[in-house]
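Onboarding guide, step 5: your first structure request.
Type a short instruction followed by the sequence, for example:

Predict the 3D structure of this protein.
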Amino acid sequence: MGEQLYDIIIVGGGPAGLSAAYSAWQNGAKKILVLERDREAGGILQQCIHNGFGLHHFKEELTGPGYAQRCYDLVKDKPEIEILVDTMVLSVNPDKTVTAVSPSHGLMKVQGKTIILTMGCRERTRGAIRIPGYRPAGVFTAGAAQRMVNMEGYLPGKKIVILGSGDIGLIMARRMTLEGCKVQAVLEICPFSNGLTRNMVQCLYDYDIPLYLSHTITAIHGKDRVNGITAAKVDDHMKPIPGTEFDIDCDTLLLSVGLIPENELTRQAGIPMDPHTKGAVVYENMETGIPGVFACGNVVHVHDLVDFVSGESDLAGASAAAYVLKGEAADTVVLDLVPGNGVGYTVPQRVRPADVDRSVNISFRVRQNYGPSQITVTCGGRQLARFKRQRMAPGEMEHIALPKVLLEKADGPLTVAVEEVIAE
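The system replies with structure tokens like these:
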């Protein structure tokens, strides 16, 4: 396989990559290549056998593999879309050449007119949270345990403790209970859960699984195999409080301590990164700092619902197709979006009002739980827009739409902030 020229090369064949490929095809791109390192397309959804996917995007409730299949069915018989599985991308260069390796093609180099990065995210591990102690068997990330149980048919253990209340941790609490295991406790270092409310209810409360907020693990016991942990309450600075320690028996510890966008290729290509999202800085059309290189889905920022990944990827695919057919966007005014009070980040981080059709969707996460509150968008002290919310939580992504007419009134950075509304 010599160096071939493609309209669009997509790195990653999960829901983001497949949705982007379909959208690019719909918008007139002719030669599209999707590169996926796993044995089959579909990404992490293949191991998420629970339902609750697709309510927004496909307007019906699907399992993870069902959603992946829908995405795959849209692209599978299109002669313009080529999918190579079992193919590991080694590098993405600013000149839009991609080097990859696979058992069937060996080392190959392909050239794209545009590239879309859709590598998804990975889990933080024990090393990232620095729990002291030996390194016994029985410590897994929640996603690794999910793959073991749902795809490979193994049980990681019988008596489980879960650290972290992210969505994967909550879902695994229910999954292990359904498999006949005893989930002793879920521990969360924050004073609030980091998962979706529906997962809190359906995975913990419905099964009477105890949740300890503002708690962490200070020691893992056991030398060959985990046989228990020591938990402790933490203070406002997330430091363990002496004297609050207690032990919990377990033979398995699952870590659900956050996800990190899989951005080694992005960094290596020299694409500017956002320290808040740990993903690429993107414009309103999901274009990165390198013209013609786009990014979407969990590689940009970690989403709570795959439906929003598909929506973002539809935009990236359409934008990449427009780049191939019409060329680079004209250099125009660029507005920076700045996270203000209570806001962790915004995506996109930069907006070119001239390239916005009718409005631009802004996604962001809040830093803490809020009751009745308002989201404000200001420019140099002037309030341009205000949105009301009854409640907001860090585990659930927020979305607002800023109309083009409003963006055209801005003459500098836009600040997105949150404030609680005090009832009179």
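Each response can be followed by summary notes, for example: The radius of gyration is 22 Å.
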